[in-house]
């Protein structure tokens, strides 16, 4: 059986995911076979495993840090919000259906057998399991049906480390208040406090650390500084969304849709020297980029309506008419077409006019496409003609199929297992694909950079590219170095050995 430890937080974005990833890397470095686990994740950033199953990206990052292949066992329940009061519920990587928050709250305890089956499989295969909670364990209106914080800690018999974010202020109140609102048996499970995102002189902080230990009777296991590491963030709280300045020679703008999904698709473009990538949500922020990307979304029709109402659709059409690149991924690709049809009410039902930039028609279906793919770009023309023949890898997650109308040309040739097919479309300076991760390979980002530089009359030949996989590995090691130095690792191992 594996030893276990659980990371919970006083609130969302306290740093649970990143601390869990750091511990996965540290335990791996120390010679242990370690796996992450989060019983229930609410996220629009998802990933498709080699078996074609869907899971949250936070556990993918943690699996990468642990040096293992991501598995849906690490995230048996995934909630993908479709609106403010409902989500698509995914269990063991497959869609169970759409539920309102009220209906899911009533049903979720029925999912405990699925959670425990997944956990027990990991328990039999690994030395250590690093569990992650969600939000806060002190949401007193939700505690009775909890399956992801203290409820999960009890099921796994996992000691808990409680993380608080000092950067936003009020960390001592949030730590003390969280512990106060727990039941006595739950408080006894919290074996350590971690103060996260600290900037400044620790000598000034120390009196507060001493007092919080006195008040809560819980040991401070460490203070983690505000870390300068480049690790994929979780969902809409990402700092990436707030970068608005234009510093590079080439400017790429990603439209920040209200229900944007898989925004980590575009992280590799940030690594191109001389290229500036930013997220925009208004015509004022859009300015005059060299390339516009319309990303994936959990509600294509709803977000297209938002584009229309915000004036961004008109701005994108103007950009396209100037001959500059527009690239749509998944839901963004669907928006570029002539018509979106939803006969089964998968999204909003009915039909909707698309942006008319690609001659395709999209029909939403009741079944979801989930598969890993690899392939290469076809003989692409237009401003991104340098992509022709370049290989890529990625995955598809979508509820619709797009059919060419008239003179649409397929963008890529993809392979999935033994099947080969044409995928995506392009026309002139407009490109669209269903493949998430299509920009992940260095060869793809370099080809795009060369094209964008050339379109501006600039020479890219002297710009160095980077090996993205090697870069990510170095970032995980850097993360582990920060956290190992900041935490009392001797105490962490003691917690592991003693258990709950």
Automatic annotation (TrEMBL):
Reported function: Catalyzes amidations at positions B, D, E, and G on adenosylcobyrinic A,C-diamide. NH(2) groups are provided by glutamine, and one molecule of ATP is hydrogenolyzed for each amidation.
Organism: Clostridium cylindrosporum DSM 605
UniProtKB keywords: Cobalamin biosynthesis, Glutamine amidotransferase, Ligase
Chain's gene name: cobQ
Protein name: Cobyric acid synthase
ATP-binding listed as a keyword: no
GO molecular function: ABC-type vitamin B12 transporter activity; ligase activity
HAMAP family for this protein: CobQ
Domain CobB/CobQ-like glutamine amidotransferase residues, every copy: 251-443
Annotated active site: 330, 436
Residue stretches making up the CobQ/CobB/MinD/ParA nucleotide binding domain: 5-227
Parts forming coiled coils: none
SUPFAM superfamilies per the UniProt record, alphabetical: Class I glutamine amidotransferase-like, P-loop containing nucleoside triphosphate hydrolases
Top-level taxon: Bacteria
NCBIfam families the UniProt entry points to: cobQ (TIGR00313), PRK00784.1 (NF001989)
Name of a matching Pfam family: CbiA
GO terms (BP aspect): cobalamin biosynthetic process
Pathway(s) served: Cofactor biosynthesis; adenosylcobalamin biosynthesis
CDD domains: CobQ_N (cd05389), GATase1_CobQ (cd01750)
Family: Belongs to the CobB/CobQ family. CobQ subfamily.
């Amino acid at each position: 059986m594996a030893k276990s430890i659980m990371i919970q937080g006083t609130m969302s974005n306290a740093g649970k995911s990143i601390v869990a990833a750091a511990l996965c890397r540290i335990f791996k470095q120390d010679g242990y076979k370690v796996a992450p686990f989060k019983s229930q994740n609410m996220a629009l950033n998802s990933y498709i495993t080699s078996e074609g199953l869907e899971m949250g990206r936070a556990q993918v990052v943690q699996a990468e840090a642990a040096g293992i292949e991501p598995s849906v066992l690490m995230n048996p329940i995934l909630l993908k919000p479709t609106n403010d009061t409902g989500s698509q519920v995914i269990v063991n990587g497959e869609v169970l259906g759409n539920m309102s928050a009220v209906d899911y709250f009533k049903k979720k305890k029925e999912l405990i057998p699925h959670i425990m089956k997944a956990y027990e499989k990991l328990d039999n295969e690994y030395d250590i399991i690093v569990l992650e909670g969600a939000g806060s364990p002190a949401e007193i209106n939700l505690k009775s049906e909890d399956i992801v914080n203290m409820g999960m800690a009890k099921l796994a018999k996992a000691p808990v480390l409680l993380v608080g974010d000092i950067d936003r202020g009020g960390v001592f109140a949030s730590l003390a208040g969280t512990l106060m609102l727990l039941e006595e048996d739950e408080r006894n499970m919290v074996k350590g406090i971690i103060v996260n995102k600290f900037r400044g002189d620790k000598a000034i902080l120390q009196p507060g650390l001493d007092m919080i230990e006195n008040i809560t009777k819980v040991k401070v296991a460490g203070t983690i500084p505000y870390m300068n590491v480049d690790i994929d963030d979780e969902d809409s709280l990402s700092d990436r969304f707030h970068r608005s300045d234009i510093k590079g020679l080439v400017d790429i703008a990603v439209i920040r849709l209200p229900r944007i999904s898989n925004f980590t698709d575009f992280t590799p473009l940030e690594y191109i020297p001389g290229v500036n990538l930013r997220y925009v949500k208004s015509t004022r922020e859009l300015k005059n980029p060299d390339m516009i990307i319309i990303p994936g979304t959990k509600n294509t029709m709803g977000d297209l309506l938002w584009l229309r109402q915000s004036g961004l659709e008109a701005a994108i059409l103007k950009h396209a008419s100037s001959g500059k690149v527009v690239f749509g991924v998944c839901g963004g690709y669907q928006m570029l077409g002539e018509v979106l049809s939803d006969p089964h009410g998968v999204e909003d039902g009915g039909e909707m006019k698309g942006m008319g930039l690609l001659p395709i028609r999209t029909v939403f279906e009741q079944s979801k496409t989930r598969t890993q793919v690899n392939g290469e770009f076809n003989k692409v023309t237009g401003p991104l003609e340098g992509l022709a023949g370049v290989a890529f890898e990625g995955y598809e997650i979508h509820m619709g199929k797009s059919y060419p109308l008239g003179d649409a040309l397929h963008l890529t040739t993809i392979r999935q297992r033994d099947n080969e097919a044409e995928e995506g479309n392009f026309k002139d300076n407009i490109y669209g694909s269903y493949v998430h991760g299509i920009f992940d390979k260095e060869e793809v980002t370099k080809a795009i950079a060369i094209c964008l530089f050339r379109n501006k009359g600039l020479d890219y030949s002297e710009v160095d590219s980077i090996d993205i996989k090697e870069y990510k590995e170095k970032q995980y090691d850097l993360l582990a170095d920060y956290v190992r130095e900041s935490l009392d690792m001797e105490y962490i191992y003691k917690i592991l050995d003693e258990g709950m």
